[in-house]
Amino acid sequence: MLTDQPRAYSVVLEWLEARLRSGEISVGDKLPGERQLAEDFSISRASVREAIRVLDAMGLVRSSTGSGPAAGAVVISEPSTALSWALRMHVATRSLPVGDLVETRLLLEIQSAVQAAAAEDSPKRYETLARAERLLDLMDDPDLPAGEFHHYDTQFHLLLVSLAGNVVVETIMESLRQATIGYVQETVSDVEDWPSVSVVLRRQHRQILQAVREHRGSDAAAALREHIMWFFELSGQVRS
């Protein structure tokens, strides 16, 4: 018989949420052990373990097995982890079309590029732009494997998004990129002349960075749109 009763482990999740909101528990703190949590909430240790597994999947705790001071669950904060996996799973079921994810990325990243270009010059901005340029320098290596190229590509885009100063957008952007990474890899593997494609991508990256550096928001937005659409049209995942 079906009931509306919450699962036993949900009390642990609700308890942790309340303690995080109140500040009684912070990132880096260690949770009580399984036995103590089971006794405190009058639930089984199996339910506690299930709660820890859920929290781990949500990017809220990192668990270490065994005994000693390093064992147990420690509170972390990796908000993009759960969202990335959720998006990837729903993309796999085809409930979320890749083309729609790309269009969502366009909306967020183009707005972020405009805001990044408008940001006032500061030591932090200079350092972020310098880090982005160093990534592009690494990507200029003609012998760089495609997998490493796209790792640096991801970091480059996230650095520029970070200049807009919105951590929620940063988190969503990272999740969107992780959700489409499988399709990016498939596209690259299907490209017959990857060196020629990488030349175009490197040129586009330089144009985007230069526009952001020179506070040319509309140019940065246009260059970014061209870059994203050009690449994903190679795979046929977006409408041209």
From TrEMBL:
Keywords: DNA-binding, Transcription, Transcription regulation. This is GntR family transcriptional regulator. SMART domains: FCD (SM00895), HTH_GNTR (SM00345). Residues 6-78 form the HTH gntR-type domain. InterPro entries: GntR_C, TF_FadR/GntR_C, Tscrpt_reg_HTH_GntR, WH-like_DNA-bd_sf, WH_DNA-bd_sf. Pfam families: FCD (PF07729), GntR (PF00392). Coiled coil: none annotated. Transmembrane segments: none annotated. GO terms for molecular function: DNA binding; DNA-binding transcription factor activity. Gene3D superfamilies: GntR ligand-binding domain-like (1.20.120.530), Winged helix-like DNA-binding domain superfamily/Winged helix DNA-binding domain (1.10.10.10).
